[in-house]
Amino acid sequence: MTSPDARTDLVGLLPEEAEQAIAAHFQERGQPRYRAKQVLGWLYERGAADFEAMSDLPRAERDALAERFAFTSPAVAKLSRSVDGTTKHLWRLDDGELIESVLIPTSSRLTLCISSQAGCAMACAFCATGWAGYRRQLTAGEIVSQFRGARAWARDNGYGEITNIVYMGMGEPLMNRKAVFPSLAILNRGYGLGARRITVSTVGVVPGILEMAAMPEQYRLAVSLHAPNHELRQRIIPLEKKHSIDELMEALRKFDEAGGKRITFEYVMIQGVTDDAALADELADRIREFNAFVNLIPFNPIPGTDWKPSSRARLNYFVERLEARGISAFVRESRGSDIAAACGQLRAEATEGRKPVQITPGSTMKARPGREAAAGD
Ligand code: SAH
Which atom of ligand 1 is nearest to the CA of 167? Predict the structure, then answer.
């Protein structure tokens, strides 16, 4: 008998790999071909949590599958629901690591924001995940299982089907390409989410952007720019020292030239830090060459800094100034801030087993856990 650890995780396989593995398994057992289709239907469409749920398969076949294959299915450690309907899942992975995903309903969409790493090594000065440091990479199965778990919850709670996915939870997706790229293919080809409904958000990991440019699918790219020049950007984003804004722009040019993939720029509005009116003009000049738009994100306060979000008047003025220079800009309204589910607030807080992170108020540029790891990609 196969030990549980040697079983293949179905959730982390590409759809064609899963199909092949299951078909081969049934062939060995002398089972009809349609059995593989049944299992795939349960896996992708119906969202079975395990083989036991696959009620149209004979008992012996369910048992045989369970000996050979497994389903990554993280446990729900905590569920928080905001007054605005935004719902955050805190997932506990097999080794005890904690990650978060957030369901964000609007009138026309149901967006799921997922994590790509446990923690994050990028250490951006304004982000709570960055303050908490890096823990480990997620597997493709762990990334996809956030979707599976959130989808099941959404179906059971009258939220309907997930229409869009954004890799804007914990972690830097392009620092975990080995798992993130397969997860894109699984969500797209396995679960049937259109590539243009899947957005990868990056702080500017140039090699990853170039790899995405070469993909035939039109996955969307969001770039966390947050500053229009090297001096300001390196003060708030350590990665700027490795991949400068000029190098980033060059990579985005290649992404743009690959065609059909619209870029979104994200820009966090921190009072007195990133919201000077002159910066709006500089930003517009920087990105004019792209068919892009800007999402202005009012800074969501996090423990450890005394920064404040820009005033409403300043946000509107920034938008006007960008539009006057021909750039479409929107203010992204914060959702779920009452449950710490808004951008940059994900910290996977849990009660047991984790040391509190030491944060000195105001000192945004001190060495922090995970800082060293930010160097490699
Ligand atoms: N690592 C990826 C994705 C995770 S963060 C990235 O950097 O894009 C998702 C978005 O939230 C990013 O644009 C990030 O810069 C932004 N963000 C982080 N902390 C924030 C905060 N405190 N307030 C507002 N936005 C924040």
Answer: 3
H helix runs in the chain, sequence order = 15-28, 34-40, 59-68, 128-132, 140-156, 177-185, 206-213, 230-236, 245-257, 277-287, 312-324
38 and 177 within one domain: no
Q: Is the CB of 203 under 6 A from ligand 1?
A: yes
What CATH number is attached to the domain comprising 61? 1.10.150.530
Distance CA 80, CA 90 (A): 8
Boundary (domain end) residue, out of 21, 51, 70:
70
Do 188 and 168 share a structural domain? Answer: yes
User: Looking at the 3D structure of the chain, how many domains does it have?
Assistant: 2
CATH of residue 167: 3.20.20.70
Domain boundary among 70, 105, 122: 70
Same domain, yes or no: 64 and 82: no
Assigned domain for 290 exists? yes
Contact 63, 83 (CB under 8 A): no
Other beta carbons less than 10 A from residue 110's beta carbon? 18
Q: Quick one: 285 and 310 in the same domain?
A: yes
Residue 175 lies in a domain: yes
Q: pLDDT tens digits, the chain, 377 residues: what are they? A: 444 468 999 999 999 999 999 999 999 999 999 999 999 999 999 989 889 999 999 999 999 999 999 988 889 999 999 999 999 999 999 999 999 999 999 989 999 999 999 999 999 999 988 878 899 999 999 999 999 999 999 999 999 999 999 999 999 999 999 999 999 999 999 999 999 999 999 999 999 999 999 999 999 999 999 999 999 999 999 999 999 999 999 999 999 998 867 899 999 999 999 999 999 999 999 999 997 899 999 999 888 889 999 999 999 999 999 999 999 999 988 777 777 767 766 676 653 344 433 333 333 333 343 333 333 33
Give this prediction's pTM. 0.91
Phi, psi of 287 (to 5 degrees): -105, 5
Give the number of the atom of ligand 1 that is nearest the alpha carbon of residue 203: 7
Please work out whether the CB of residue 131 comes within 6 Å of at least one atom of ligand 1. no
Secondary element (H or E) of residue 221: strand 220-224
